[in-house]
Amino acid sequence: MSMYGHNGRVTTQPALAPTEADVCCPSLTVSPLSLDDAQDFARILKSVADPTRLRLVSLIAAHEQQEACVCDLTDPVGLGQPTVSHHLKILVDAGVLRREKRGVWSYYSLEAAVLNRLSEFLAPN
Amino acid sequence: MSMYGHNGRVTTQPALAPTEADVCCPSLTVSPLSLDDAQDFARILKSVADPTRLRLVSLIAAHEQQEACVCDLTDPVGLGQPTVSHHLKILVDAGVLRREKRGVWSYYSLEAAVLNRLSEFLAPN
């Protein structure tokens, strides 16, 4: 995910002379966002900007050992397995959830570092 | 905005026996979200889940006195006034920006409390 490694950008735009903090952790209210950073964060925010996906994340977080399979999630959200799997894929693709296949099921857990990064990004200066 | 006043929900669903903390501040990873809370937060997240709107918020935050009019914002984002006004209206409607009319211009500033609430909501438990 490019928000975790901006070496390419630093190399190609040396005139910006970003500090270590800029490169690591852009913040919404500290300085004007670059288009790259705005696109990175918009993509992650889009993945959670949906009531069903927010509920899926909160159900996984509240589940035993903070992980769950699709079979645990369909009933609580009242949706079929294909729909739930579709929402979970969007969250995995955005980096908000991790997917691990064990036996016949895939288990989903939180990528706490990504949620933490999003939280810090939005916190007002 | 309903996330700031859940008295109706408390009255109509006494069996949930929410604590003061639950009523005030639902959190994504503390307990399963209600549909109402998920819809509230999804609506606010949608307003910022767009690269142009993220850049507008960051430009306003970085502007003198943390407020700006449309005339300050069109050049930095490279878009016309109607498009920028449309994006700003979405952010005002979601509660992320405040709009104040002075003379012929409207001035936009951050609603820091809403960004703070969003940041706290997403922070992993």
Automatic annotation (TrEMBL), chains A, B:
Coiled coil: none annotated. It comes from the Bacteria. Signal peptide: none annotated. Keywords: DNA-binding, Transcription, Transcription regulation. Transmembrane segments: none annotated. SUPFAM superfamilies: Winged helix' DNA-binding domain. Pfam families: HTH_5. Residues 33-125 form the HTH arsR-type domain. The keyword Transcription applies. CDD domains: HTH_ARSR. This is ArsR family transcriptional regulator. It comes from Brevibacterium epidermidis.
